[in-house]
Each structure stands twice: as structure tokens, then as C-alpha cells.
Amino acid sequence: MPLYKTQHLKIYNSLSREKETFKPIHQGNVGMYVCGPTVYSNVHLGNVRTFMSFDVIFRYFLHLGYKVRYVRNITDVGHIVDDEDEGEDKIAKKARLEQLEPMEVVQRYTVDFHEILKAFNFLPPSIEPTATGHIIEQIEIIKTIIDKGIGYEVNGSVYFDVVKFSETNNYGILSGRNIEDMLANTRDLDGQTDKRNPQDFALWKKAEAQHIMRWPSPWSDGFPGWHLECTAMSTKYLGNHFDIHGGGMDLKFPHHECEIAQNEACTGQSPVNYWLHANMLTLNGKKMAKSTGNNILPREILTGENTILSKTFSASVARFFMLQAHYRSILDFSDDAIVAAEKGYKRLMEAMSLLAEINPAEKSTIDISKWQQSCYNAMNDDFNTPILIAQLFEGVKFINLLNDGKESVTVADLEIFSKAMTIFIYDVLGLQAEKISDGNSNKLEGTVNMLIDMRKKAREDKNFALSDQIRDQLIALGIQLKDSKEGTTFSL
Ligand code: AMP
Ligand code: ZN
Question: Which of 36, 268, 371, 413 is the most buried (most CB within 10 A)?
């Protein structure tokens, strides 16, 4: 029997602002859409946190035995700087600045995104569609919205009429905003745009002569608005009504509010049963963002190449650091905090090595089933990873007591216990086993230090091909070198 039949999962729904029992539309199946990155620059650690929150949610659904269709898109057109309707497309702007084809920009940062996801042990989504691959679907949706009288065309651009929509629907249902307040608090448009109201948003924009990303449409040669792509791709692969839609908290308004409006205008129904929003990763108390430069790149965690970091950290330590906070809480990044996370992670890994050595006994003095259920209870309570990690440390306590002979477990209980620890740590949280210390670690350290010396010598001899080869081959083996004034150190 699949586990979802016995586990009672509750999810916080941003739409109802309550924790609700999870009931999928089709029994045993979950359809989940998550807004993906806009590929005009490297993803930062904040982006990674949001995608990691949904990676763990995806992993838990899979563990419960659901068949999951997880769709996460790539935004490769239509996202205007500052999330506005006027101005330059983020990708087109980058292409102009770097004198590249827009698709070269898209390719470069999509590849980077995938490399980071792999390094941080993400499961790939079931479908990863691109906005540019779904222009036809987006045009069809615009036609429907115009036919329903809620879209209007001006000078080759098409806008969504929020005021008209609000006569029959609740624009602001997700974000809790009120259309009257929105209208009262906005300035006149001074004829700067073709919109009837400042709240209206673009469905299609006519491309200026110099705009390189353009497609033919019934209204003009142009490009789709940002919100439309997610409506097109989510409904194409998951249907007009699906289970879960996720993204970062900052996408709730306007992006997700506009998605709901587009769907309701087209089909008359709300598209999503559960809206999930992951909270922000901050640095120095401020949101990590690409545009402000207040960010850390995920790769810098692995190489230590950021002045805020005292050393290198493994991808699993970064994962462990982030999952120690609940996905709906703000998390502030600091060197102290990730150093502390590393200590905790090492304790967990040491205990896992010890667990393999524990011998079973005649009877159990620990209630393993109760402990196992408390792990499920943590995840069933809106994917509460910090509580799960606290339960895993209860498990660490058990391991130490068993090792000291102060408690005992039967063969059957030991098997349940080992399996549960393994499943929650590796399958659900997505951490990767790290050997902390064993008889071979001295040999390994000696060998790597020898290679570090050889690399130093190669550099002194200006044999950079060799020094780079040594560094790159060590990286390929998961061994990172960090150069500083004091010399070169390494981390596994
Ligand atoms: P973008 O590429 O800007 O569209 O962002 C990709 C995803 O990362 C979205 O779901 C954002 O909400 C999310 N995101 C952006 N900044 C942060 C941050 N500082 N912390 C967590 N998630 C973020
Ligand atoms: Zn989206």
C-alpha cells in the first residue's frame, strides 16, 4: 500500500492562508508547477533556496508513493527589467550589453543553472518547458481573453483589463490586495503607456524596431508578457485545474495574481488548488537579489571565493544549512551560520557511520515506530524540515546510546531505524553521504597535499596547463582547493 494512504499531509495554502489537508485531484497523482529562473545571469543562492524547497517537496511526494508530474519552466523571454511592462527585456538587455545573441545568453545561463542543480543534488523536474517554445499557446490564450472581453488591443500591444475583470472576479484574491485601494493609490499614467488603467498588465507587447526577440501575432510582431508564459505552460502540461503551484514569495504579486486572473478569464475557474510560496534568503538582513549585487553564488560556497566565507563548504552542508529553516521562514545567510550547520551535518554523518556497526539485541528498549512516525509527522506538517532534522538528531542520540550499550534494539527494529534514517536524510532531504573520518582519511589527505605541492611547483614553473589540470581533476573528484596568502587548503 502506498504511504500516502496512511500519512495525513497538511499543506499551508497561500490562497486560503491556512494549513489544509492535501487531497490531489486524481488519487495517487500530483501535478505541480513551479516558476523557474529567468536565464539572464547566474542563479544566486537565494534562487537555489526556493528551488530546493520545492525539490524537497517533490522528493517527499515521491517518497509517499505519488506519481508526480513536476513542471518547472525556463523563462527565456518576456521578463522586463524590474518586473514592469515597459522597458527592456532582461535577456535582450544582457544580449545587447554582452554583444551576444539572446539565445546565447539563454543557453549560457541555462547550462549554468543545470550544473548548479546537479552539484546541489536536485532531482530533475518531469518537464522543463521554455517560454519561447510556447509562443503559439500564449497567442491562443490572448485570443480567448480578448474574445471574453477582458483583453484589449492598443497600437499592436494587448493588455488585460483588470477593472473589467474585477466586476465579476476577485483580483487580489491571492495577495490580499484590494482593487479599489490599488486604483485609489496609483498616479495617472500621464499618457506614458497605452493602458487604460495602471493595474492592467501586458499580454502581448509590440516590439520596437530595434527589439531583437520578436514573433508574429495577429496584433503585431512582438513578444508575450511575462505572466502569460506560466499560464500557458502550466495548463498545457497539467490541465486547466491542477494541484500545486509554487514559487518564491516575491512572485505572489503581481505574477501569480495575474496568472489566476488570466486563467479565470479564459476558463471561468481558478487554476490551482494549493498555492505554495517559499520565503527569501537574505544576506546582511536584505533579500539576496541579482539586480542589487547583494548575493552569493552557489559555486562560491564550493570554492570559498567570496570574502564573506571563511572557508569552502560542500553542497550537502549548504543544503543542510537551508533545510534547517522552514521553507516559509526568512533565512539569513552568514559564515557563522553555515559553519554551525557544518558541525551539525558532520555529527549526523558520524552517527550514520556508527549506525552501520550497531549490533541488534534480543529486545528493544526504544520505541522505533513512534520515533519513525514523528519523522513523518514533521514532514506531514507543511514539510517542516527543521522539525524533521530535530527528529534525526533524536536518532543520533539513539545511535550513541546503542553504541554505548545503554539501549538496545531487535534486528527488525534496527532495520526499520536504519532504513528510516537513510530515507529521510538521503532520499527526502537530498543530502549526500560524506565520509567524515576513517582509516583512509590520512592517506587521502597526504595524497591531496602532495598534489597541492605539485600544483604549486607547476605554477612556479609557469606550467599553467598542468596546474589547472591538477585543480580541475580534483574538482571533478569533488575535492575543492582554496588558495589564500597562507597557502592552499582543500575540502571534500
Ligand atoms: P527569477 O530568476 O528572478 O525569476 O527567480 C527565480 C526564483 O527564485 C523565483 O521563484 C524567485 O521568487 C526566487 N527568489 C528570488 N530571490 C530570492 C531570494 N533572495 N531568496 C529566495 N528565493 C528567491
Ligand atoms: Zn511563473
Answer: 36
Question: What is the signed CA dihedral for 104, 109, 113, 119, rounded to 10 degrees?
Answer: 90
What CATH code is assigned to 282-428? 1.10.730.10
The per-residue pLDDT for 4 is: 98
Per-residue pLDDT tens over the stretch 249-302: 999 999 999 999 999 999 999 999 999 999 999 998 999 998 888 999 999 999
Tell me the chain's radius of gyration from C-alpha atoms.
26
Between the CA of 258 and the centroid of ligand 2 the distance, in Å, is: 10
Backbone φ, ψ for residue 245 (5° rounding): -130, 130
Residue 274 DSSP SS3: strand
pLDDT tens-digit series, residues 298-330: 999 999 999 999 999 999 999 999 999 999 999
Range in 134-148, 335-349, 426-440 the model is least confident about: 426-440
Which ligand is nearest the CA of 327, by number? 1
CATH of domain 12-278: 3.40.50.620
Distance CA 41, CA 94 (A): 8
Which atom, in ligand 1's list, is nearest to the CA of 38? 2
Residue 279 CA: which ligand 1 atom is closest? Answer: 21
Has residue 81 got a pLDDT over 80?
Answer: yes
CA of 87 to the centre of ligand 2 (A): 19
Of 77, 108, 112, nearest to 93 (Cα)?
A: 77
Closest atom of ligand 1 to 282 CA is 19
pLDDT over threshold 90, residue 486: no
**Closest residue by CA, ligand 1 atom 1:** 37
Buried b (16+ CB within 10 A) or exposed e, 357-369: ebeebeebebebe
Give me ligand 2 centre to Cα 124, in Å. 18
Say yes or no to pLDDT of 190 above 60: no
